[in-house]
Amino acid sequence: MAKKLNKHTEIKDFQNYWREDKPWGIQFKIATSEKTYVIDCKWKDRVRLPDGRVISNVLARKVKNG
Fold first, then answer.
1. Secondary structure (DSSP) of 9-63
2. Could you read off the pLDDT of 1-13 as tens digits, one per residue?
3. How far apart are alpha carbons 18 and 63 in whole angstroms?
4. pTM of the model
5. Long-range pairs for 21-28 at CB < 8 Å and ≥24 separation?
6. 28-44 pLDDT, tens per residue?
């Protein structure tokens, strides 16, 4: 089971962040002076196509099968 975060999390020694689009959603990386936190925001019923467009799983199956 994934670790649950509070609605508010304070990172006191924030230095930088990155956002990366993934096939399953979006990944955020937050760098501090000691470590990097990774947050995976996953969609339940969507996927990202190779061209970057986001569609529902049902439509993705139709596109894949022609």
1. ---TTEEEEEEEEETTEEEEEEEESS-EEEEEEE-SSEEE-TTS-EEEHHHHHHH
2. 566 666 788 888 9
3. 31
4. 0.69
5. 21/48, 21/52, 22/48, 23/47, 23/48, 24/48
6. 999 999 999 999 999 88
